[in-house]
Each structure stands twice: as structure tokens, then as C-alpha cells.
Protein 1
Amino acid sequence: MENELLTPTGSEKLIQMGSNENSPTIDNDLGSHLLTQNKNSNVKIWLADLTHTNSRIISNHMPYGTACVAAFTEKYINMENPIRLFKYPEKLSAALENDGIPDIIGFSNFIWNSQLSLDYAKRIKKMSPKTIIIFGGPHYYLIPAEQEKFLRDNPQIDFYIPKEAEIGFANLITFLINSDLDKSKVKDNLQSVHSIGENGKVFLTDEAPRIKNLTSVPSPYTTGKLDEFFDGVLLPVIQTNRGCPFLCTFCDEGVTSLNKVNRRERWQIDAELEYIAKKLSRLPKDQRGDYLRIADSNFGMYKEDQITCETIAKCIKKYGWPTQIEVDTGKNDQKKVLKASEIVGGILSLNGSVQSLDEDVMKNMKRENISSEGLMQIALSAKKADTPTVSQLILCLPGETKQSHFNSIFKIIDASFTHVTIFQLGIEPGAEMFTPSDKERFGLKGRYRVMAECIGKYELFNEKFTVGELEEICYETDSMTFDDYLSCRKMNLIISTFYNNFSLYWGSDTSRPFFDGILKFLLSQNIVISKWMKLLHEEKIEGELLDVFNAFEKASRDELWENKEEIKNFIHDSTVFEKYHNGSLGYNLQNSFRILLLTRYIKPLKDFTHKTLLKLLKENGKDSLENIAFVNDLLEFETSRIKNISKDIDQIPEITLEYDILKFKDDEKAASVKDYKLSKPVTVKFVLDEMQKNTIKKTIGKEGVNKLNGIGNITKASSGSNERSKDILRMLQSHN
Ligand code: SF4
């Protein structure tokens, strides 16, 4: 038989043959799922996990997933040429043009790089029809009919490997080597390999079994596969386990086949962390980065995670890295999560991702086995330890109403989460919620928009081309009208402006809410913060501030397109593309409008804030003359800090205060208002030191393409000819 499956004996042979890592254990039955290689090969294989690079590096993580596939394949298959990895499209173009097109090239397929990968693949296929093109990644459909349509719509793809890719990819490569790269021989004879055969027949085979012991996948760090990506730009990622015990239907991981959690062994995790820390410590100081991404789905929820944290703590002590850990923390067993955070000195982002607190909505998205009470507790416990906490919500979930969405926001804020991130519901093809039957069941309706900054101009084989990633956003359901959705978007902007952390001045590590003094004052008066957020949403907005909110609503409406082909054509028009490219279109609306409010419109924002605070104090019987005078000083202080930023950064704002606002803000526990009364008024100047000025300039340079530059362009671009947003742009310009 040309491609026989390995017997257990074969498995032993295979480990001896290809092992390039000293792994003490291995999946006992892994070998039985891998094909025997019966020919040596000098096949050239490349793998690309591309990112858009035009405004900045959009996916700034090392290509860990593709590197795992490469390391696994190299371990189990004898090949003369190591697999080459690519992250930057420009480097891939140069290699294709200068080094020749490989025999086989694979692309990762995520929402942020799908079209980029497809467009590269199309050009490679045209230039070299014999090159075999393989795709893999979560941006792929669940339902066979939709999988087939995707493959037929994209004939540049020869094979698609769904879900966990290592076994499917390695077997496909072995089969192709054994078949002298005759791809027509791949039919329904390989698990986890989808294709349209030469006679037009579709082959959608079952998934290959998952790897039980992830240590069977060599570390792409210690094997050196990721060495070239320590470039001072990309950030390291590790994954200590794969799979998730929950079944959230909006998530591509919430499927039964990924329900079991498989792990790496301790020695491998420790070796990886030590390797990364040592490698980073050899880079020049300004290129090291301070960040680690752990790609587990529920970090901290398992006892093994505490041991991982102990290793990280050793790295911090020895190498000063990492100083930040980004991770999705466990949804249950919060005590363990908090313990893990404590071990690494609180640098773990504590995440209470509830998505919704409405019981019916939780049932609709199959999250009823996640304890929302437990997730809420994390905020209280973290508050005691003075650790920042983030909670996430998703707008427009099945069965969610405007009121239930607001209720979730208010509960989270009053539970003391320090930051509330509200996502829009992206319709991801790989998740159960977006299968045709579920969409129909809940009346989910989607429209398309360009993903913020995921658009760029590239060049391959002397041809320039533009690529933009589209995402489908749910804007209406049976329980939420489009007007409700827009009203929720307004609430989201209010939360982000008045409650969430803001880091233009301070840098992300020390960021705090812009109105943190006001929030502290309200709590000291026993007024729950949600009451203020509700009032800010309900209160009549007038004048130029109304123009900004109207512009935000219009932009939220207009960014969504019903027809996918229309928006595709729109962004490929060269003048329109330039606007996306330079940031005058396609910026993140919420971030941009928040900064617009807090800089250019700070004066009307201050007046509006004042109005709501007086009303709130009155409604709660706290409107004593002393409280009102204190709030006046406090608001003057908060808003004066930033009023020079959008005009002249060297100008020094100056105010006179009757209360010691700085002491109030510094005090761990607020005293009575009368205790802050000064014996005589003082003048306060807001002087930025060079470091602060540089921080602001750096923010403008780095994030400002998205934020400030975007805002600048809102006002500049009103002369634009035919883009849909021109009315918004004109409206804002008239106030500058
Ligand atoms: S807990 Fe997280 S990773 Fe797991 S299914 Fe839910 S959203 Fe996905």
C-alpha cells in the first residue's frame, strides 16, 4: 500500500527517525494516526501567517500557530529543506520573487488576514499553477454546504485543513511526498483535508483526532523556528494547553470537538519561557518588549497554571521579563485565577468576560455553565489587591434587548470592574451561532464593514494591489432593533469616555479613567456609578456636543454595508483606498470619537458633565452648596489638564481652586469634602514634563494613526468627493 498508517511499531520508528527535541514522553497513539513516509524529499514548503502592515503591524504576535505546525511536520517527516515561515507580506513578496516559488505554500486564515492570504494565494497560483496551496485556521465555515461554497469561490486553495492542523497537515505533506506531489491523488483518503477534486467533486473528510499530549509538538522556540521573529516588533506567544470546556456558540472554540483540554508537559513550558526570556534579554533594551501573550482559553483555572506562573515569576526575577501578561483568564474557579495572578505580582490581566449577565441570553449562547457570579467576584477580590480588572460584553447577542444590555453594563460597573470593553458581535463563520439555522432562530442580521486598519497596498511579481479585510457585524436581532443598537452604541461611547481607562497622558501601565476624581467623589457620596452613566445617556445633549454625538451615530450607521460586493468595490477605488490608507476612513469609531470628545470638544463636554452631576446630586439629596462647589473645582481640574493637547502642547493651563483636589485624588480613602477646603484659593498650573510630552507624541505616533490622526482627518477630509461619510465630516468641520 502506498500510504499505510503507522502501526505502534512504526510509531517508535517514527520518533527515533525525526525527533529533534529531547521529549521524555509522547502520545502513545499518535503514531497510529500518522502516515508512513516512503520517499525522501527535497520538497520546498513555506508557511505564511500574514499581517497587514500599512498603518502599523496589525497582528503583532510571533507566528506561533504556524510555527507549531512547521515544527511538528519537521519532526515527523524527513525533508532536506526546513520549512520557511513568513509574517510580513513584504518579506514574502521578496522571497517569492528572489528565491523562487515553493512547491507547497500554506496560509493561515484569520478574520484579520483572510483576504490578504487569499490575494497572495491567487497571484502565486497564477504565476505557478503547480504550486500546491494549503489553507488552515478558524475563519472557515462549520457547515459542509458553506465549506464547499468557500472552496469553490476560492479555487486558488487546493486544500483546507480545518481545526487543529498538525496531524492533517503532516499527513497531507507525507501523502504528497509519497505521490510525487500529484495532488489529484488526494481525495477522501485523508482526514482533516478538504478539497475540490479535479473532476469537481468535493471532499470534506472528518477531522483527524486531536493531539492528546501537546508535547508531541516540539516547541517552536527551543527548536529555533521562531528565532528570526525576535525582531523587536513581534511579541512572544505561548500556549500551555489547547481546548475549552465551555460551548459558547459565538466562539469558534465552543464546539464539542475542541471541548477536551490537552496540555503541554511542564518541562517544555519551562524551557520555552526560559528560552524566550533569555533571547529577549540579549536584544537592545528599547527592542525587548515587556509583554507575553498566553494563548490558553482559560488561563489560571487549572492548578498547572500556578506552576507556570511560578516559572514566569522566576523569569521576572532573573530577566525582568515579562512586565505584562495578556491572557483570557478562566471563566470558573476564580480563586485559582486570583492565586495565579498573585504569583506573578498582579501583572496578569484579570478578565471577567461575562458577555451578558442576562440568564436567557446566557442560555441562548450556551454559557449557562459559566458562573457569572464567580466572574463578578473577581472584580471585588482584585480591588482589594489593587489589581486592574477588565470585563467584556458583546452587543446584539441572541435574545439581548437594549435594557438587558444596559443592565449588564450597570452591574459590571457597580461590581467595580475597572474597565468595560464592549464588543460588537462579529459574525464569524466558524461559530455555531452563525450557522444558517441559529441565525434564523434568533433573527440575527449582519452587515459588512472594513476592519479598522486591516487594509493595505502590497506588491507581488511587479503588480501592485490593494487588500482590505471585511467583517460582518450583527446590527439587529429579533429582540434588538437597529435603533436600539445605535442607542447601545451611544451608551458604549459614554462608558468608554466617562468610565474606562484613558492613556493618552500616562502610558498604558498607569492609565486611569479620565474622570477618576468624579468617580471617586460619587462613590464617597454613596452614589452608584451606574446612575451617572444612565443619566449621561438619557440627558438631552445640545449644541456642538450634539453634533459630535449625531456624527458618531451617523458614522455607526454608515460604516455598515448591506452588500458585500459593493463595499469590496468601494474600497478598491484608488481615491477611496487612499483615505483608508491615511486614516481618514476606516478608523476605530469609538476610540476616535472618545478622543475627539476629550480633546477638541472638552469645553462643551465639561458643561454637559457639569449639568448631569448637578442633577445627579440633586436626585440623591447630595446637592449641598459645599458639594456643588467641590464638584465645580473637581471638574475644572479634570478638564483643564488636557485642554492644551489639541491646540498647543507647550501652552500651560492655569486654574484657581478652593479645594485641595490633588490631595483628594491622592488620598486612598476620600475624607469629608470640608476637609479639603483650602484656607485661601490656590493657583494650579498643569505643566507637562518632557517625558509626558514625549509620551503624548509617541501615542500620537503609534496609536494616533487610529485615534488622533483619524480625528484630524475627520475634520480635514470633508472635501472628499463621494464617500458615504461626507455629511458627518462636514458637520464636524463646521465646528472647528
Ligand atoms: S470560554 Fe472562551 S474560548 Fe471557551 S468557548 Fe467560551 S468564548 Fe470560546
Note: The two ends are 76 Å apart (CA to CA).
Protein 2
Amino acid sequence: MSLPDFARIPRERLPELLAAMPKAELHIHIEGSLEPELIFALAQRNGVALAYPDVQALRDAYAFTNLQSFLDIYYAGASVLIEEQDFYDMAWAYLRKAAEENVRRTELFFDPQTHTARGVAMATVINGLHRACEDAREKLGVDAALILCFLRHLSEDAAFETLEQALPLRDKFIGVGLDSSELGHPPEKFVRVFARCRQLGFRLVAHAGEEGPAAYVWSALDALHVERIDHGVQSIHDADLMRRLAQEGIPLTVCPLSNLKLRVFEDLRQHNLGQLLEAGLVATINSDDPAYFGGYLNQNFIETFDATGLGARQAWQLATNSFTGSFADAQAKRRWCDEVNATFARFAA
Ligand SMILES: [Zn+2]
């Protein structure tokens, strides 16, 4: 296969190309797609009292300065999710948006412990999300799968308990991940539960190297045996790690607007995505918690390309990486990558 002729794509057409190109999203917390409008609608439907008088007051409260201050509001927003239909509605709102943005494949993280801790049954959470994923395939042409995340600020025993509760529904999610407050909660804390999940045949991912050090990326790989690193931008400070990630083709799910909002980078122009690609890493762009971090997937692409000067070649690489880094089957990956090539050929014509 010959590469598209990137030089023939004028820079001013980049935003249009970034929006039009088929892509996968591999790092989206479905609870982080809850828009203030939906939070208010669900609060009303379920009779939940919110600490904010109106939608605007809630939006105004989204002025976090770090991961922890974000998580505090994030968990408050999730408190309106009670019935199976609430989980469906939340996922469906995101999946419709994803379809509009030419997302062909998405792997949704969900945090069951945020809900089971409030007395919501595991089946309520998973069945609502799963039904939305099934409808997305049928009605939107979006291939969606679920990844259950353990909250790392809680104990490994709590993770085990969560896994046990979810196992009767195991055909409805494809893998497990590790999220929430990274600093002080290294991957080593979850070695036994990840070993068990590996044994059970789940796909494995973990957040590492967002605010935490490159050492957490090493231990996510070596102690947890994950197949993909969520964030991983701190890997840049460790040359041996960078070589390993490139050699083993371990995908990084990078989230530029999230990094900006949580001050992992002070300015989008300083973002290291271009360097990660330059070093041959399978880096991807993702939205993380789009309702909270100022943009869905295409916004992440457009603002990052605008700030960093990345061009059509990197756009093609990122779209291709997003599919090859996904957990979809090989045939689907090939089909989507062909579609990426066809889109670039059209823009280069
Ligand atoms: Zn995340």
C-alpha cells in the first residue's frame, strides 16, 4: 500500500480533514461525558438534590486546577445516575456525538464502584450501558465496547469485590482498566486482581504516567501486564521506556485537552504528542472526560493540531493508530484503515 500524498493536502483543509477522517476513541470515561444539562434532567427525573441551583452554576464549577479537584465534581455529577435507563441515556448521548464525529469504534470506560458505592446494582450499570452499545452498532454504525475500570484510590480488595459482582455479566464488557487518582496509587497495588482478570481472558489497560512518573508506566507493563497505556505522556522522561513502547508497539491513549485542563501541560503548544509520534510510538488522541475538559474528540484533534503545528501525515498516523491500537478484530481494523486511506486520498486529490 502506498501512503497518501500528504503534501497535496493544504493546511487550511486540516480541520475539515480531522473531522471527516474515520477514527476510534480508546480513552473516554462514560461518566465524564455527562453534560450539565443531562445531569439536571436526570436529577429532576430521579428526585436527586444538586448542590448547584442551575446548569450555568454547575458549568461554572468546572474550574478545576488538578486531577483531585476535578474528581470531586465528577463524582458529584455521577450521583444522579440511578436507573438502568439513566446509564443508557448517558451512553447514548455520547455515542450519538461520536457518530457525528466519524468515530467508527469506541471503547468506553465505566467506573462501577462510583455507582455500587451508592447502592446502585452492578447489573443496572452494565445492562444500561451495554444496551446503548448494541443500539449504537445497529442504529449509528458505531462499534462500541465496554471496559470496566477499578478506582485506584480504593483498595485491591474492593476491586476484587467489584470483579466478582461483574462476572455474571462478563459477556457485556471486554476488559478492565485502572483509573482515578494516580499519585500515591501505583499499579503494584493491583497486581493480584489484574492477574486474575488476565486469567479470565479480559483485555487489560491502565492509566499511567499522566500525573504519575514514568516508573508507573513500567510497572503497569511489567506488574499488571497491560496491553495499552492510558495517557503515558510522562514516558518522554525515560529514554529506555520510550524505546520499549516503540519496539513493542504499545499504544498510548493521549488526551490533550484533559492534559491542558489538569495542567499536565501549561500550554497546548508544549504538548509532547508530536514527539511521541516522532519516536515511533503508537500514540492516539482521545477526549478522556469530554463534558468536563472542554471538548469531544474532534475538538481535541483540531485544537491540538492548531497549537502544535502537526499536519496531515500525523493526522493519518493518529487515525491509523487509533484503529490498530483498538481491541477490535483484525478484519474490522483493516476495513477502517482502508477507509482512512480512502479519506486521505480524497483530500489529496
Ligand atoms: Zn482517563
Note: The radius of gyration is 19 Å.
